[in-house]
Amino acid sequence: LVRGMQMQAARAGVQGSLAEVALKATQARGFHLLRRKYDWVEPEAEELIAKAYERHKRYQEVGESFPPALSCENLEALGKVYHYEPKNLRDKIAYNTVQVLEKFMFLFFREKYDHHAVCLETVAAVPGIVASAHRHLRSLRTMKRDHGWIASLQEEAENERLHLLIWMQHTKPTFIERAFVMTAQAAFVTFYTGMYALSPVTAHRTVGYLEEAAHKAYNDYLEAIDKGDIPNVPALVIAKNYYHLPEDATLRDVVLHVRADECMHRDFNHHLSDLIQSGGIDDHPTEMIDEVNEMKTNKATSDTKQTASA
Amino acid sequence: LVRGMQMQAARAGVQGSLAEVALKATQARGFHLLRRKYDWVEPEAEELIAKAYERHKRYQEVGESFPPALSCENLEALGKVYHYEPKNLRDKIAYNTVQVLEKFMFLFFREKYDHHAVCLETVAAVPGIVASAHRHLRSLRTMKRDHGWIASLQEEAENERLHLLIWMQHTKPTFIERAFVMTAQAAFVTFYTGMYALSPVTAHRTVGYLEEAAHKAYNDYLEAIDKGDIPNVPALVIAKNYYHLPEDATLRDVVLHVRADECMHRDFNHHLSDLIQSGGIDDHPTEMIDEVNEMKTNKATSDTKQTASA
Lengths: 310, 310
Ligand SMILES: [Fe+2]
Ligand SMILES: [Fe+2]
Ligand SMILES: [Fe+2]
Ligand SMILES: [Fe+2]
Fold this sequence. Notes:
The structure is a homodimer of 310-residue chains. Chain A is mainly α and 310 residues long. Chain A is 73% helix and 0% strand. In chain A, α7 (126-142) packs parallel to α9. Residues 1-16 and 25-34 of chain A have low confidence and may be disordered. The A-B interface holds A 61-63, 118, 121-122, 125-126, 129-130, 132-133, 136-137, 139-141, 143, 145-146, 150-151, 154, 157-158, 161, 164-165, 168, 173, 178, 181-182, 185, 189 and B 61-63, 118, 121-122, 125-126, 129-130, 132-133, 136-137, 139-141, 143, 145-146, 150-151, 154, 157-158, 161, 164-165, 168, 173, 178, 181-182, 185, 189. One fe (ii) ion binds at residues 124, 160, 211, 214, 262, 265 of chain B.
């Protein structure tokens, strides 16, 4: 398939931005693949998000950081809000669920963006573990392969848990916030487990929107730091270790890295929802880094062709 | 601590088998560490089990097999039955739970050891995922670190799931067996989740005994192959990939490797139960490979001392 796409892209003599190349390449693939799998974000953003996420993921897996050259300036570019437009009833249920949750969270925390972050992450780390357990039990029950969902979802949950542990050291939650977290966990685990059993499409879409909200919450956090409302203290050791930050890194750098992770979760969950909806519940999901590498291959091929025919 | 132990072991001028060295070394550590963490198996067996398990674990994590020189003859040595003697009421509850389950399984499957294996694995892959989810949610709720339990338990569950997928390709389960599995999963997930919430000590001990039963089931499987009751067909691709077996590997080789994994789960879960019981619910568990490496260091140190004073 990839080779076919490369040839078609090359034959079309595509030139220009990564976005155009990607568009032409996917158009060449035929009707059911007319669009990029992550087409609600721009290809440039997709590339940055994928790289930012691969960084700590690869460190955990093979003990090396990747890519070494991703800077905080790169991460600044991820402030842009992307929104997956609800397309059907299930999308709208998901969107409205999160709208209600978000209103409630903002009412509870108001301007305390750091405290907001701690509690947000205790909830954000639930869906990945519920969904991965569901897929695991499904694989056992049907005695069929899982096709790479379990590990990705566990990785998501672990990443969110690390966000929590990082914010915990920067912010001491109050007693009332801890009580809130206990109640929220019991309610949310029950709610999300039921939702996942009834409709995995709606469940992953809900996480997609939850992560859109998380992304906005971290935009607000950054703004509060820039305005001086929250002091830009030095980053703590746990954050510096996890993200491989330099000695003089600050809280702001940590927020930038965490926000990039939320972009990745947002887009991966929207993709999983799309995938199940299009009958791909037994397909291997396309991780962003795969789509990025595919686009690059297409571009390289078309560039070579251009040069050769010039 | 390790350095202190080495010095004490060296001072004691220990000589002899790995077992003796290990015993003296742990005795030197003081009262609460009077015994080896995995003292219900012999150190020689512990070393083999740890190596067999590290093999596919490391392959998944860093893409290389370890150690390359572990042979099927090594694995033959793991037929010996080790039993953790029940010490208190919780241990006895765990032991009797498994006794009942085991009787029931043998009644259902009788001499069909290959079919027994398929259904056993659909149950065996449940505790790891339940326990890891429990630890994950606990870490979120208490906002405290997990200390390495989650990943190890997820790895156990994934390893059991792979056992299932391997046996699935060797044995086509009947309709009645599939129905049995569905019912068993619903019942066991509920049962084990409740048990883990009430008493993690009893839950891990139960898995320890469940794995003792699994070990015996694979002993029976091997005997059936050796007697010719089950034909020793060539190993399938999925098993050869997972365990890095040579081209001409057979079903018997696969059973040997799977049995080594069951030894590891047995011992790790007994250790986790011990650890919680001794108040170490927030400690990093001692993986077998760590204890083995520690024993080797002690032995090397004492050998050097011997040579120097000779
Ligand atoms: Fe997060
Ligand atoms: Fe997130
Ligand atoms: Fe197993
Ligand atoms: Fe097992």
